[in-house]
Amino acid sequence: MDFHVTPEFDAKKNIVGYFAIRQDITAKMDLKELNNTLENSKQHFKELSSIDPLTGIYNRRSFFEISEKLIKLSQRNKTPLTLMMFDIDFFKKVNDTYGHIIGDDILIYITKMIKERLRESDIFSRYGGEEFIVLLSDTDLKNALKIAEEIRFIFSNNVYSDGKVSIPITVSIGVGEYKNELLMREFIQRVDGALYKAKENGRNRVESD
Q1: Nearest to 173 by CA among 81, 86, 82
Q2: What is the pTM of this model?
């Protein structure tokens, strides 16, 4: 409770009593706490909206928001920027054979394996379904191809296992270096062509645009 006391005077300015106001400030305190809670919730949901709930990496929308900024930074600093697109080979067959729960576990497994090879500064995102995308700042095509080949090799020499089933997993990878595209979508479309070439040429391989 909050009290405000005001003296009352007569005509001769003598105090003849006091006028007290008692105010319940609990509601005000609760409102302040509620506002803080709402702000924290907004921030929490903002963070959640940028993350893919299954894999814990950036979702597609966040990737575009961040990558557009990195393109501008690359142009300003005149530093190389490369893009890698990954696709799990024959993933539909895995889902059809083992079920979507195993399929989800494999997506998590894929994410972990790729993330271990990347830098913290690399922008790693689940682009959709079984397709992943990575933007590597300050990295030219030669070095990006080396990283991509290392990742491909890791998968081709390891087998996913949950203790009950063991499933060989391979990935096809397309790689390209930024060439002054006006939009990130144009850059992605070009690298997606390299990914398509990797799949057409037998899968479990790396191709550049």
Answers
A1: 86
A2: 0.76
Q: Write the secondary structure of 128-147 as one string of H (helix), E (strand) and C (coil).
A: ECCEEEEEEECCCHHHHHHH
DSSP code for 120: T
Q: Label residue 181 by pLDDT band (50, 70, 90).
A: confident
Are 6 and 19 in contact, with CB atoms under 8 Å apart? Answer: yes
Set 33, 47, 130, 150: catalytic member? 130
What CATH topology corresponds to 60-208?
Alpha-Beta Plaits (3.30.70)
Contact present, 188 and 133 (Cβ < 8 Å): yes
The pLDDT-based confidence of 44 (bands split at 50, 70, 90) is very low
Q: Which residue has the tokens 């080396």?
A: 146
Structural contact between residues 172 and 204, judged by C-beta atoms closer than 8 angstroms? yes
Catalytic status, residue 130: yes
Question: In Å, how far are 17, 30, 116, 191 from 172, measured between CA atoms?
Answer: 88, 55, 18, 12
